[in-house]
C-alpha cells in the first residue's frame, strides 16, 4: 500500500506570507508538516526565503499567492496585490526592541511531526531569527527614505471601503479567498510582535468598523487555528497561541548562544546569504 503524499511547509508563523498559506491549508483541512529550517536542497535553491511548499518529493513552490492558487483559488489583480502589500507597513517596528523580537521568536512552538527533528529545528532556528532581524533592519532603513509619516489608517481604508457595501462575511463572498488569507495573515504578523499604535488603529478607528467586523468573522471561521496571534486583540476573543515547551525554548537559546560564540562565522554566513538574496 502506497503512503499518502505529505504536504510539507517551510516557514515561521511570524511571517505574514507563511501565515496566509497556513490559513489556506487550515481552511481546506489539508494536513501538513511545518518545518522551521529548510531542507539542504531548498536552502541551496532559495536560501532562507519563506514560505515554501511541496507535496511528497515534488518541486518546492515559493510564492505564497502561487501556493494558494494551487489550491484552486483565483489570482488577485495587480492593483489589489499592491494594496495587500501596503498593509504590511508597520511590520518593521518589530525590531524596535531587539530583546522582545528574539524572545517572541523563542516562544514559537514547533509543529514538525518528527519529535527529534522538531527539537533539532529549534536548535537551528536562532539563525533564522538573526537573518530576518538583519533583513528587517535593512528594509526599515530603505523605507525611511520613502515614508515620511506612517498612516496606519490609510493602509487599511481601501479594504474597509470594499466591505462597506458588501453583505458577505468575507472578501471571497460566503467563504474566504486569497485576499482574506493574505490580509488576515498580515494581521497575524502584526499581532505576533505587536506595535501598539498600529494595533490601536485597527482596534479603535471609527473609519475601520467594517474591517473589524470582517476580522470578527475570520476569528469565528478560524476558531481552532493554532497560529491565531490576533486572538487577544479582537472580538470575539479566542484561545491564545500555545507557546513552545521549556525544552524547545532551552534549545533555542542554546543555539543562540552557540551562534554568538562563533560570531565571526555567523556574520560571514549571514553576509553571504544577504548578498546572494540581492
Summarize the structure.
This protein has 278 residues and is mainly α. The chain has helices at residues 16-27, 40-46, 64-69, 78-86, 98-106, 115-143, 152-164, 178-192, 196-204, 209-221, 246-261, 263-277; strands spanning 7-10, 32-35, 52-55.
Description:
The chain has 278 residues and is mainly alpha-helical. It has a domain at 78-232: Glutathione S-transferase Yfyf (Class Pi), Chain A, domain 2, CATH 1.20.1050. Helices cover 55% and strands 4% of the residues. It has 12 helices and 3 strands, in the order E-H-E-H-E-H-H-H-H-H-H-H-H-H-H. A 3-stranded mixed β-sheet has the order 2-1-3, with no helix packed on it. Helix 1 (16-27) links the parallel strand 1 and strand 2. Helix 6 packs across helix 11, helix 6 crosses helix 12 and helix 7 (152-164) packs across helix 10. The longest helix has 29 residues, at 115-143.
Secondary structure elements and pairings:
Blueprint: E1 7-10, H1 16-27, E2 32-35, H2 40-46, E3 52-55, H3 64-69, H4 78-86, H5 98-106, H6 115-143, H7 152-164, H8 178-192, H9 196-204, H10 209-221, H11 246-261, H12 263-277
Parallel strand pairs: 1-2
Antiparallel strand pairs: 1-3
Helix pairs in contact: 1-8, 5-6, 6-11, 6-12, 7-10
The CATH C-level class name of the domain at 78-232 = Mainly Alpha
Main sheet: strands, sense, barrel: 3 strands, mixed
First-last Cα distance? 45 Å
What's the CATH topology label of the domain at 78-232? Glutathione S-transferase Yfyf (Class Pi), Chain A, domain 2
Number of strands: 3
- How many helices in DSSP terms? 12
- State the secondary-structure class: mainly alpha
Amino acid at each position: 500500500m502506497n503512503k499518502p503524499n505529505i504536504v510539507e511547509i517551510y516557514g515561521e508563523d511570524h511571517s505574514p506570507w507563511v501565515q496566509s498559506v497556513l490559513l489556506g491549508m487550515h481552511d481546506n483541512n489539508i494536513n501538513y508538516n511545518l518545518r522551521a529550517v529548510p531542507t539542504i536542497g531548498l536552502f541551496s535553491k532559495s536560501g532562507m526565503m519563506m514560505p515554501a511548499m511541496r507535496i511528497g518529493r515534488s518541486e518546492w513552490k515559493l510564492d505564497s499567492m502561487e501556493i494558494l492558487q494551487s489550491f484552486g483559488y483565483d489570482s488577485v489583480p495587480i492593483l489589489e496585490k499592491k494594496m495587500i502589500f501596503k498593509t504590511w507597513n508597520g511590520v518593521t517596528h518589530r525590531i524596535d526592541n531587539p530583546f522582545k523580537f528574539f524572545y517572541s521568536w523563542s516562544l514559537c512552538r514547533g509543529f514538525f511531526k518528527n519529535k527529534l527533528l522538531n527539537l533539532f529545528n529549534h536548535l537551528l532556528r536562532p539563525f533564522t531569527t538573526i537573518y530576518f532581524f538583519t533583513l528587517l533592519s535593512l528594509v526599515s532603513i530603505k523605507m525611511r527614505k520613502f515614508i515620511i509619516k506612517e498612516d496606519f489608517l490609510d493602509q487599511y481604508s481601501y479594504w474597509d471601503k470594499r466591505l462597506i457595501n458588501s453583505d458577505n462575511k468575507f472578501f471571497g463572498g460566503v467563504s474566504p479567498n486569497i485576499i482574506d488569507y493574505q490580509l488576515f495573515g498580515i494581521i497575524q504578523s502584526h499581532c505576533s510582535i505587536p506595535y501598539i499604535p498600529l494595533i490601536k488603529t485597527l482596534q479603535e478607528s471609527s473609519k475601520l468598523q467594517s474591517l473589524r467586523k470582517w476580522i470578527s468573522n475570520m476569528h469565528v471561521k478560524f476558531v481552532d487555528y493554532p497560529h491565531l496571534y490576533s486572538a487577544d486583540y479582537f472580538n470575539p476573543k479566542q484561545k491564545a497561541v500555545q507557546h513552545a515547551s521549556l525544552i524547545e525554548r532551552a534549545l533555542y537559546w542554546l543555539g543562540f548562544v552557540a551562534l554568538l560564540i562563533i560570531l565571526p562565522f555567523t556574520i560571514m554566513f549571514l553576509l553571504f546569504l544577504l548578498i546572494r538574496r540581492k
